[in-house]
Amino acid sequence: MSVSAFHEAPSQGLLIDSSPSLPNIMHLLEPRNSREHVEAFAAAVRAGLSREPKTLPFEYFYDDEGSRLFEAICKLPEYYVTRTEDAILRRHAPDMVKCLRRADGPLGEPTLVELGSGSAVKTRRLLAAALKRCGRLDYVPIDVSASALEESAGQLARKFPGLGITGYVADYRRGLERIMATAAGPRLIVFLGSSLGNYTMEGASDLLSMIGGLMGESDRLLLGTDMAKDAPLLEAAYDDSMGVTAAFNLNLLHRMNRELAADFRPDGFRHRAVYRPDRGRVEMHLVSLRDQSVQIPAARIAVRFREGETIHTESSHKYTLGMLAELRGAAGFVEESAWTDHRGWFRLQLWRRAG
Ligand code: TRP
């Protein structure tokens, strides 16, 4: 651990405080070209594309190229999600970090854990507020994209002296289990964007239960959720005029070509986004433009597509207060505070474990 070694050095505290600590990056995932990784991806693809209707697991959007495209989505005029959430954070960050306290004694620093940090631009509001409050802070981002994590960790280390950074290239469960076993409380776990919305209601409830199961009494979860709104606004946000979202969706086909030696012709498919208020979500599909068949050697399958047949690649849930109450109850949380924008488009909520 370079960070603690640095602190034990016999020099003046002042010097230490003004020099940025180097971020530590821990790798808990199999490298992308490892056999384990390719086999897991191949098995997921085989299962999803053998089903009717066809699906693909959304976790696989975020390879390095997908993470880069998603950052571009966040800056699109139609994608109101990032801007709206950022405006709420800008205004209320100091209130959101009140559970964190300056560490006195040998317990270690207060800790902010972030799930799916990506470029961590919005997180800066929380980090600045927490540092102002506590003086020092450990920031522990978890992300499946090593490149996104390394880049943002480097930038944050330069921007925020006083911030210790340990990034985990990991899935949420493995990353959190490791972190929660080592970091001292209180810990603030943040899950921003509308990432929770990509899970089914059942999947979201399982994920939240897993998180809650690792939290202690003084820990808090800060959760971002996008709210139900008019269909045209939602459909534009998920099918922008510049085609970035389409490229993001189609990147899944390129990824299967790259990693599984598949022969998808991405120009044989089209991106489609539909709001299904009855299901509380926007659904993203890839529509086959003709009858075609595709070989996916690493998954040992050939897949036939009829013209107009779709692969359901992702859903993004748009919550009502009722849906949020259902999730909170099922996963065993109590709400402490919540913040929203003046139009009620996006909601950030601070939860603690019930009981
Ligand atoms: N978490 C983002 C969201 O639901 C992911 C996302 C944005 C996305 N645009 C997309 C996923 C288009 C698939 C296709 O808002």
UniProtKB/TrEMBL annotation:
Q: What is one Gene Ontology biological process annotated in the Swiss-Prot or TrEMBL record?
A: methylation
Q: What domain of life?
A: Bacteria
First-level EC class: transferase
Q: Does the keyword Transferase apply?
A: yes
Could you say which residues form the signal peptide? Answer: none
An example Pfam family from this entry, by short name, is: Methyltransf_33
Keywords tagged on the record: Methyltransferase, Transferase
Which is one GO molecular function term here?
L-histidine N(alpha)-methyltransferase activity
Query: What EC number is given for this enzyme?
Result: 2.1.1.44
Q: Which organism is it from?
A: Aquisphaera giovannonii
The entry's protein name is Histidine-specific methyltransferase EgtD
Q: Which Gene3D superfamilies match?
A: Vaccinia Virus protein VP39 (3.40.50.150)
Residue ranges of domain Histidine-specific methyltransferase SAM-dependent in the record = 42-352
